[in-house]
């Protein structure tokens, strides 16, 4: 008798799930639309999470990861999509992994995904990301390759955003590549290429006078040059 009752309870549970699951899907689909209308990002995340639990799909996971990334919740984005490189990854998933890994300071892992994005759709903005990541990893041959591509393929209306100041700002992408070129040349030989790097930074500032990062770099290199010109204090004694 107990077995029969248990089977009836189990059967009732399956029937209840079958009845309620479509209703729950409808509810959260409506909830998702409403949250989008209201611009409630946390509500959108909650709705998408419920939808993905009720009816899992890669598209929903990709969307959820993208929303997390857009809100600067990079660890949540990576926890949602993982950090493995899969041939079946959509462009959105690949972008989320690339940007999120870069944001959490994993340049080597991020590089893999930016390379995949560039392979799928090469463009100057991606070339900048590749040059910058390779610079961090001291792959100067790769840096120069991507700078050359970027300088050739940058258009006058292309911009690059920078965030080292309290107020983010944009500069011409050509100015950004010129700045990277100066850093690359300086890194190869910090003494012999000091003047050349300063001159290139000045060219970058001619294109974008508001380029704070280039100004900082130029001032630092000029300081190094002035220090190198000073007589050794020990020689005076």
Give keywords:
single chain; 237 residues; mainly alpha; two-stranded antiparallel ribbon; 12 helices; 75% helix; disordered N terminus
Low-confidence stretches: 1-19, 233-237
Give the H and E element order.
HHHHHHHHEEHHHH
Termini gap: 105 Å
**Assembly type:** single chain
- How many helices in DSSP terms? 12
Mean model confidence by pLDDT: 89
Strand fraction equals: under 5%
Structural class, from secondary structure content? Answer: mainly alpha
Report on the biggest sheet.
Answer: 2 strands, antiparallel
Describe this structure in words.
The protein has helices spanning 2-38, 41-54, 58-70, 74-81, 91-103, 107-120, 124-136, 140-153, 173-188, 194-207, 212-229, 233-236, and strands spanning 159-162, 169-172. It has twelve helices and two strands. The longest helix is centred in the first third of the chain and has 37 residues, at 2-38. A two-stranded antiparallel sheet has the order 1-2. Helix 7 runs antiparallel to helix 8 and helix 10 runs antiparallel to helix 11. Mean pLDDT is 89; it is low at 1-19 and 233-237. The chain has 237 residues and is mostly helical. The protein is elongated. The termini are far apart.
């Amino acid at each position: 008798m107990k077995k029969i009752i248990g089977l009836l309870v189990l059967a009732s549970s399956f029937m209840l799930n079958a009845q309620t699951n479509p209703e729950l899907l409808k509810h959260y689909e409506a909830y998702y639309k409403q949250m989008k209308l209201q611009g409630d990002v946390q509500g959108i995340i909650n709705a998408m999470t419920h939808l993905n639990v009720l009816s899992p799909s890669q598209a929903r996971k990709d969307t959820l990861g993208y929303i997390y990334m857009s809100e600067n919740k990079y660890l949540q984005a990576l926890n949602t999509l993982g950090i493995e490189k899969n041939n079946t990854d959509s462009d959105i998933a690949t972008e989320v992994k690339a940007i999120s890994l870069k944001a959490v300071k994993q340049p080597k892992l991020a590089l893999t995904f930016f390379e995949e994005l560039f392979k799928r759709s090469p463009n100057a903005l991606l070339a900048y990301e590749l040059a910058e990541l390779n610079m961090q990893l001291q792959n100067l041959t790769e840096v120069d390759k991507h700078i050359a591509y970027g300088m050739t393929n940058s258009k006058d209306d292309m911009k690059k955003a920078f965030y080292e100041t309290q107020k983010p700002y944009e500069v011409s992408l050509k100015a950004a590549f010129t700045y990277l070129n100066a850093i690359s040349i300086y890194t190869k030989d910090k003494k012999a290429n000091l003047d050349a790097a300063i001159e290139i930074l000045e060219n970058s500032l001619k294109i974008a006078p508001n380029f704070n990062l280039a100004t900082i770099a130029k001032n630092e290199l000029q300081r190094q040059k002035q220090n190198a010109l000073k007589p050794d204090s020990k020689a005076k004694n």
